[in-house]
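Board notes (copied after class):
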Amino acid sequence: MNGRQLRTMTTETLAERTYRAVHDAIRAGELKPGEKITERGLAERLSVSATPVREAIRRLETERLLDRTGPRTVVVAAMEDSAVQELAEVEVALRGLVARFAARHATDDQIDRLDAILDEADDLLIVIQQRNSEDRPIDRHLSSLFDTMQEFNDTVSSCAHNPVLVGLLEQTRVFSQAERRARLREHISAGDRSALDRYSYHRMLVRALRDRDAESAERIVMEDARAGLVGRRPTPNGDPDTE
């Protein structure tokens, strides 16, 4: 391998890492809609040169996560409500497809790992419900639960064995991880048990994956995803619970 090839590989790797860092910051809410970003500022923040930053910004502009306001300046894009709703529908559909592929391709070890993750979540739910009934702080335990369920979701995605599909799903996330967690905290703090009860549907998904029932896996995930986006809990027969 000559020096030119090595430089090209390094530049491409840095561009990908820079793109992922900015994308994740937007998703996590660290970079907020309307926030100004400069090439120089990002390069200094990420300790990289201007070239990978420029490539990452160009890619994020294509995905409409950034809007250009000047030759070297962009802002984090803010979507209209109608666009958010449309993107939410795409996200729900893609999550269903990921589950369908997972039912076809998940290994037994991966499904066993999903069960183990849910066992951890169940233990945390017991502690949270008990502390909630005693009016004791639950923030630390909620954070642990959120992390556990994020691991569950990531594992389901890996079960699909389809990185292209999973990549598309990541691009359509309507709400950042921070926003999702904040909304769930609000529901739980307000005494909404359905926010916690939603996790029982993950067991239904694991059973569908173990049975290789792609249709049921897709339906379960899409119903749960819709419930999470609109703040309603699906009932076991598949109808939203609006009580």
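Comment from the instructor: The longest strand covers residues 66-70. Residues 1-9, 231-243 have pLDDT under 50 and may be disordered.
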